[in-house]
Amino acid sequence: MFKVKKSAVLAAAVATAGAGWAQEVRVYNWSDYIDEDLLTKFEEETGFELIYDVFDSNEVLETKMLAGGSGYDVVVPSGTFLQRQIAAGAFQPLDMSKLENAGNLWDVVQARTETYDPGGQYSINYMWGTTGIGVNVGKVTELLGEDAPIGSLDLVFNPENMEKLAECGVHFLDAPAEMIPAALQYIGEDPDSKDEDVLALAEPVLAAVRPYVQKFHSSEYISALANGEICVAFGWSGDILQSRDRADEADNGVEIAYNAPSEGALMWFDQMAIPVDAPNPEGAHAFLDFIMDAENMAAASNYVYYANGNVASQPLLEEDVIGDPAIYPDAETLETLYTTTPYDARAQRFVTRMWTRIKSGT
Amino acid sequence: MNWRRISLIAVPYLWLAALFLVPFLIVFKISLSDIALSIPPYTPTLDLSEGWSGLRNMISQLDFENFEFLADDDLYWKSYLSSLQIALISTFFCLLVGFPIAYGMANAPQEWQPTLMLLVILPFWTSFLIRVYSLIGLLSNEGMINQFLMWLGLINEPLTILNTNYAVYIGIVYTYCPFMILPIYATLIKLDGSLLEAAEDLGCSRTEAFWRITVPLSKAGIIAGCFLVFIPALGEFVIPSLLGGSDTLMIGKVLFEEFFSNRDWPVASAVAVILLLILIIPIVMYQRNEQRRIEAEQ
Question: Is CATH 3.40.190.10 what the domain over A130-267+340-360 is classified as, yes or no?
Answer without folding.
Answer: yes
